[in-house]
Structure formats: C-alpha cells, structure tokens
Amino acid sequence: MAEPVWFHVDMDAFYASVEQLDNPELRDRPVIVGGRPGGRGVVSACSYEARAYGVHSAQPVARAYELCPQGVFLPVRMQRYRELSHTIMQILGEYSPVVRQVSIDEAFLEMTGTERLLGPPLQAAEALKQQVRRDSGLTISIGIAPSRYLAKLASGYDKPDGLFRIHPGEELEFTANLPLSKLWGVGKQTRRRLERFGIATVLDLRAQSIEELTRLFGEAGAAYLYRSSRGIDPGVYHEHVKTHSVSSETTFEHDIRSREILECVLLELADGILFRLRREGGISRVVTLKLRFQDFTTKTARVTRTRPLRSLEELYDAARELLDRLYPHPRPVRLLGVGLDNVTFEHGPEQGELFEDRGERQRRVEETVFALRQRYRDLPIRKARNIEDHNH
Q1: Which residue has the higher pLDDT, 353 or 331?
Q2: What is the pTM of this model?
Q3: Catalytic residues
Q4: Domains in the chain, start-ordered, CATH in brackets?
C-alpha cells in the first residue's frame, strides 16, 4: 500500500501579491491591504516587505501606520482575489482528484498514488509551482508530508515561493528543529505562558508529561501541544472531508477578541462560500460555524433553515446567530470558519410565497451581480456593507 502523500499549497501573501501583480510599481514596496490610515479597521493582509516592519494581519491599521508610515495602504478587492483563487484552484484540480480548499488562499491535495502519472512528489510540486506562476503570475509555497498537519508546517518552512518535503519517519526530527513560533497553532499568548513555565523550545515541550501539560493547559490544550510537538496531527485536519459541503475558514496570526472584527471576517467568508455555491449550482439549508479558541478548544454549531438559503443576507444572519450561540462572551479566537452542509444539486420544485419578500428581492439582485461577476471579472461590485467593513 502506498505511503500517504499530502500537499499543502499556500499562496504567498495573497492579497498583497495580487496588488503587486496588478500594479508592478508596488513590487518590493510594503503593501498593506485592509483599511486606510485614520480609520478604525484592521489589516487584512500585507506583503513580506511590510512584515519586515512588524505589520501583520488582524492588526489595527493605526498601529500598522505607526510601524510603517511609508507603506502603501489599499482597500480589499475581494472579487479580484476570488478570481485568481479560482484560477489557481482549477490548476490544483489538474494534479489531484482530491482538493480541499480551506480558505481563499490555501488548499490540501491528496497526492497518494499519483506518482506513476505525475512523477515523484517533488517533481509534481515543481511542475505545479511553474504552472501556477505561468497561468496566474503568482507564486505559491508547497509543503509535502504524510499528513495534512505536517504538510501545513512544511509549506511555511521556506516561504515565499517555497518547497519542502517531510518524509515518513522524519516527523520528530523536523519538529525538533522548529522554534515554538513555527509550531502551527501555538500563538504568542501560548508561547508566553509556556515560557513562564520554562518551556522555550519544542524539545522542552516534549519533555513535559501529558499529566503536567494537562495541569497547566487543560485537557484540550495539553493534547494539542503533546501531539503537535511530535509532528502528529493534533486534530486540526482529521475530520472527514465532506464531498457535499462548501466551507471556508481563516486562522488569525494573532488571537482576536473583537466581536466587530469577527463579524467582518464572517461576512467575507460567507460571501466567498455563497459565490462558490452559486458557481457550482448547488443549494443548501444548513449553515455551520466553527470557532477555535486560544486554549485550542474547538466549538461547532449548525442551524437548518426551512428553505434553501437564497441570499448573502440570509446566510450572514444565520452565521451570526451561530456566533451568538458559540461566542456569548469575548475570549481570544484563533480560527473562524463558516460552511454550508448537505449541499444538493437537484433543483426540484420549491414551495413559493404568495407575496414576494425582502429575501426574494435580495436573491434576485445577488444572482444578477453573480452573473455580472462571471461575465466581467474585474467589475467592482460588492455589498455596501463590504465597502464599509472591507478593512477587517
């Protein structure tokens, strides 16, 4: 039986790279995508040049301006990013029948058993990188490993434009050489707490018993740290891939407490999955929400509507309802995801309403916008709330 092989494909500084692609004058300059200086928004993404000044995503724009006043501050152009993401995802589909897109700028490919067709994994990855660069003008980083979690770590090992492989049996050696800051899912607050207990390296972490870690971090946190420090998937990517679901999630570089920021991100995620659902011709009544907190605990919830979701407003309202349920009190959030389950593609007769409601009008307007987006890729149309809140 063939050894499992996973690729994790990560688009390098995606939003900022798209801006530099479309405007060559911005290349090699610190580009910060999100809000304008003086506003109350936060950074959505930034180029590697901006990161050198300490700028990072989910950072208040005012702070980003303090760190990098010479930066080029640009608004989010979600439709353009979505267009290039779709182009790249189509390329990925040429290399594997199993592509799991987890956000607008990253995806997993199961490559087990593809060697006879595409060659050894490194050769296939090099070909994939070259095709993405040729067809989109962008660079990607690829991590290759026997599990999705390790592939995620590997893709960030040599960014940007990176390529790194972890072979079976190399898990312990690879993670031992990582600083704690590179151990995915172990954020700044967790590292500070670890350091307070004299745990400064991955090897220090491995030296702790599961009982001691449980005493310090609780059962969920202990299990996460124990497994991740040994290169074992701690449960981030173990869930079964649903073939009839559409979802998207984002992991924050720094934990988020602000309900306002979470709602802005939620709106953007909802807009993206509804666009994908319509492009695929699917319908769904089931909305799911996933939150992962600072202590690594994960909560999920779902709600089923009586009829298929027809507009972004309906999807966003349902997602906010779930957010109210899972997030009654502010606490640090490291990951937010939203999805549609039980997606079907058989459009049978749907019971109509005697009088047209507001949701039906919204649906018709959004379907018209969707058709325009499909035909005119660069048409700058988005919801008014997105214009106001785009700088999340």
Answers
A1: 331
A2: 0.71
A3: 106
A4: 1-169 (3.30.70.270), 186-228 (1.10.150), 246-389 (3.30.1490.100)
